[in-house]
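Sequence design from tokenized structure. All designs in this work follow the same two-part layout: the structure record, then the generated sequence. An example of the structure record is given first.
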């Protein structure tokens, strides 16, 4: 039913545009405003013909999308924390490796001086 109404609206607007006189001096802003008003009226018509089941299914879909959004946000935060942990781990490992090499050089220098 809704598709028939929209189809009739589309055909009537198409027919009225093709039958109307085309003026050379039409402003693009006026045309954009008319298109916006037509789209708005079609959206209002769609909402007015929706049933309670449509609203309930839409509410369910919105709830599912929100839960999915929360999961994605959680996984994004978890990934960020894991990456930051890896960065800190590699920095500490680098400093520990540097200290170990300095300690080995220091002990090698002591054994060379002693021998």
């Amino acid at each position: 039913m809704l598709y028939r109404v929209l189809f009739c609206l589309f055909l009537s607007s198409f027919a009225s545009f093709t039958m109307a006189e085309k003026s050379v001096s039409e402003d693009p802003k006026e045309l954009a405003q008319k298109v916006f008003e037509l789209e708005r009226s079609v959206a209002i018509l769609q909402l007015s013909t929706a049933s309670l089941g449509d609203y309930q299914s839409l509410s369910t879909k919105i709830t599912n999308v929100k839960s999915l959004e929360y999961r994605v946000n959680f996984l994004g935060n978890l990934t960020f924390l894991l990456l930051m942990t890896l960065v800190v781990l590699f920095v500490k490992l680098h400093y520990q490796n540097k200290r170990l090499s300095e300690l080995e050089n220091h002990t090698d220098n002591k054994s060379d001086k002693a021998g």
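The mean pLDDT is 82. We note this feature because it recurs in several other targets discussed in the main text.
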